[in-house]
Each structure stands twice: as C-alpha cells, then as structure tokens.
Amino acid sequence: MTSSSRATSPPSHPGSPAASPLPATCRAPAPADAAGVRNVVVMGAAGRDFHNFNVLLRDDPAVHVVAFTAAQIPDIDGRCYPAALAGPRHPDGVPILAERELTALCRDNHVHEVIFSYSDVSHETVMHAASLALAAGADFRLLSPAATMLRADKPVVAVTAVRTGCGKSPVTRHLCAAFVERGIRPVVVRHPMPYGDLAKQAVQRFASHADMDAADCTVEEREEYEHLVDAGITVFAGVDYARILAAAQAEADVLLWDGGNNDTPFFRPDVHLTVLDPLRAGHELTYHPGETNLRMCHVAVINKVDTATPAQVATVRANVAAVNPSARVLLADSVIEVDDPAAIRKARVLLVEDGPTLTHGGLPFGAAQAAAEMHGAGRIADPRPYAHGSLKQVFEKYPHLGKALPAMGYSHRQLEDLEATINATPCDLVLLGTPVRLDRLIRIDRPWLRVRYTHRDRPDPAAGTQPSPGLAETVLELLGMK
User: Fold this and answer.
1) What are phi and psi of 24, to 5 degrees?
2) How many CA within 13 A on the CB side of residue 350?
3) Which of 146, 481, 75, 450 is nearest to 289 (CA)?
4) Which of 223, 372, 413, 466 sits in a 20 to 30 Å window from 55, CA-based?
5) Beta strand 38-44 pairing with 113-116
C-alpha cells in the first residue's frame, strides 16, 4: 500500500464512511458494535505498536484493528502492516497512517478505542493524545508491560532507560564482554527498528557487516547493531518477537534485551536495569514510559556522573529512592574515547552526533561535542547554512540542535543529504559521535575521527569504606551466575 492510495486531508462530512482516510480495502466493518467487535486504532512508531498488535490484538476475536498511526520516524506512514504478519482476521493487512489523521480515523470508522504504543514522550504529550481520542468518542488505553512481555527459556537481562540517549549501548556492550569473559554466551535482542519491508524483516539476525548490508539497514539500525557485531556478539531484531525469541534463545546462554528509546522490555526480565541520565535530571519522572521502567527495575544505573554536577546526581538519586526504594543504585561514567585527541586541539570541527538522541531525545549535544570540549577544539563549524534537502527540515523541526549535525539516515535520500551537508561545511576535522562507522556508508571528503562512549563503573561515596559492586558483578549475582 502506498501513500497515494489514501486521502490525507480531513473528511468534509464527519461521520460519513465514504469520507474516511482509510483505503476501502482496509476500512473497518461498520458498525462493528452489532457483532460485539471493538474497532481499535494503535498509535505507534514502527516498533512497540507492532509488538502490542502481535501479542494481544492480532488473534483477539473481539478486536478489529482499523489502523496504526505513525510518529517520530520520518517516512514510515503510508505503508501497510502486511497480511502475512497481520493474520487471517486482517486479510488485507493494516494501514499505517500519519498521526495527524487520528481524529478523522476515530470519527469516521466507528473507533471504540485508541491504544497508545510508542515511547520517549512527555507525560503531557500522552495526555494530549488521550484528549484527541476522547474528544473523538474513543476510549484511550495504555497496555501494561506485564501483558506484553514474552517468557523466555533462558535468563533475560533487560537494559532499558528513562530517556533515549542515556547510554544503554555501552552498558549492553559492557555486560556482553563480562559474560564472554566468564564463558557465558550472550545474544542480544534489540528493540524493533523495522523501517523497510516488514514481511522480510519479521526475524532478523545480524552477525556480520554483510548481514547488515543484505538487510539494507539504515544508519539508525546500524548505530544499534554495529558496535555489538564488531565485538563478536550476535544481534536479533525485527517485527515478530515470539519468533525472534525462539531463534535467539536457541543460540544463547543468556539473553540481553537492548531497549529502544525508553520503552519497556518485550521479554520478561530476570534482571531489569534502567539507565538514568543526570544531565536531564527530573526527566525520569516526567517521560513515558521511562518512569514505568524506573518503578519496575531491579537496578538503577545513574550514568554520566563524570559530566554531571553533584546536584544533578543527587536529584536523580532522590527520585529513584522516592519511587523505587528497593532498587539497587549503581553509579557509572560514560567515558569518551578518541583515537587521536591531539588532532582536535585548536581545530575547526564539525560535530556529527547520534540522530535519535538529539532529535526526539531532546539532547542539545552528544559525544562529538563532549570530545571537542575535552580536547580543546578551536571552533565549532556551523552546518546549518550548508544543510541539504531533508537536513534543512530536520534543523527547522529541532531548533535546539544548534550547530550539531544529527547523523540522519532513515533512507538513501537522507543519507545522500547527510553526505552533501558534511562535505559542504567548511571545517578542519569531522568528529563522528554516532556509534556507526559512517565512513563505510558515505564519502567524507574531510579528515575525520570517531568518538565513542564506553561504560566505566564508578565508586559510590554512599557506600563508605565498603567497595562498591560493579555493574557486571551485580548482574551476575542477581542471576545466580557469580
């Protein structure tokens, strides 16, 4: 289904099925009430929404899913959740429409319920969505994490966060290394990022760069998979997480759930870690579903202590104690690593940062800026006057970016725009703060350096003279593997 097969303007006659923005082949039976069927719209962003559908809605005879709506990720609306994944109760598949069409969907398709199914949004944003649904005559619902978690046959460690950009990836990589060192075989299952052909992406396994090339992974996918694959760790992802779980646990001694954004785990964890960011102190209580992760977790990892102020760390610690006093609290540093720090000194540098962390994650800086400040860069180059195509729109949509260039690559076109913007911006050096080897995907005409974050345990002053347990030691103890 293409975007040309649907109307995108609001209907002129509210209540008229003919004015629906849905394609006729995907329109819900109307009225469904007579058969006792509830028409449902799932608000999502190509991840949690599909999982909720697969686990709870697909085979429920009392539910007909009218549509998914899409947000956050560019160009993911206008597609269709394919019939091959949607099951016999949705033989034409399920359309994926832009979130701006929610009100029309509810009013014109007898929608009884809207289920909110994406992450890293403020509590206020969730309630605005609720208000839209309620005003259009639909109930508004959040699904319990317990209702959507699958049970594994192998131990599961879940790495989640209270916001995107807290530092989950270094934590996951650190734990993988600790397991391997002890002869325990880890397999990572990553939160979904299905931005292409959904039927082909139902179950994905990545153990090499060739696997990522064959899957035509976006920059955003490679940012999550590549650092683990380079460390010799197999990564699974995709759309159908029941099938993914079966495949992944067949290869593993322990499964690591590597969460996306600040979403809750898809697998029921034996140990649940939640990473917190004191640079955004207070967000742990004001973002959905990050607060849920904080309240659920066994271990709260306060990250970036090396760059936060003592007051920020104290605020986060107090909030953890207030909502989850039984959680173990660990402190950690996100250590910046650069291959040639001397090259940064006094140079005019272009900062290329992790895309999602800076865009919907809301951070105004990332690893590249931290490295520039640490190693005495002379000036920060401004890419905004040289932004090409879709990158112009990114800067307009996220004015807080300033001079930071997010490594956007959700499509080949966007990747071309990124390449053109980097090569047009006058600078002495490009600092690549994205976890992906961007030079493998685009031509960079200027000298460049990679900047990476690694996890480092930090002693906790609150422990007094007692040695503070490290992250790996704590997880192994809770798993009974120490």
Assistant:
1) -60, -35
2) 28
3) 146
4) 223
5) parallel
For the CA atoms of 213, 383, 279, 473, the dihedral, rounded to the nearest 10 degrees, stands at 30
Q: Where do we find the tokens 């002693």? A: 459
Map tokens 């973002």 to a residue.
287
User: Over its length of 482 residues, how does the chain's per-residue pLDDT go in tens digits?
Assistant: 333 333 333 333 333 334 445 554 444 444 455 568 999 999 999 999 999 999 999 999 999 999 999 998 877 888 999 999 999 999 999 999 999 999 999 999 999 999 999 999 999 999 999 999 999 999 999 999 999 999 999 999 999 999 999 999 999 999 999 999 999 999 999 999 888 899 999 999 999 999 999 999 988 899 899 999 999 999 999 999 999 999 999 999 999 999 999 999 999 999 999 999 999 999 999 999 999 999 999 999 999 999 999 999 999 999 999 999 999 999 999 999 998 999 999 999 999 998 777 776 677 778 899 899 999 999 999 999 999 999 999 999 888 899 999 888 778 888 899 999 999 999 999 999 888 888 888 999 999 999 999 999 999 988 776 778 899 999 999 999 97
Spatial separation of the C-alpha atoms in residues 373 and 5, rounded to whole Å:
50
**Count of Cβ atoms closer than 10 Å to residue 81 Cβ:** 29
Structure tokens at 8: 């995108």
CA distance linking residue 48 with residue 52, whole number of Å = 6
- pTM of the predicted model as reported, rounded to 2 decimal places: 0.86
Burial class of residue 476, CB neighbours in 10 A (0-12, 13-18, 19+): buried
Residue 177 Cα distances to 29, 150, 187, 460, angstroms: 52, 25, 11, 23
- Separation CA 30–CA 13 (nearest Å): 16
Q: How many CB atoms lie within 10 A of CB 393?
A: 14
Percent composition of the chain: helix, strand, coil (DSSP 3-state, to 5): 35, 20, 40
Q: How far apart are CA 236 and CA 113, in angstroms?
A: 32
Report the distance separating Cα 49 and Cα 81, nearest Å: 11
Residues 110, 139: contact at Cβ < 8 Å? no
Phi, psi dihedrals of residue 430, rounded to the nearest 5°: -105, 125
CB 81 within 8 A of CB 94: yes
CA dist 105 and 97 (Å) reads: 9
CA distance linking residue 298 with residue 478, whole number of Å: 9
Q: CA 422: distance to chain centroid?
A: 25
Are 118 and 219 contacting, i.e. CB atoms less than 8 angstroms apart? no
Q: What is the enclosing helix (H) or strand (E) of 38?
A: strand 38-44
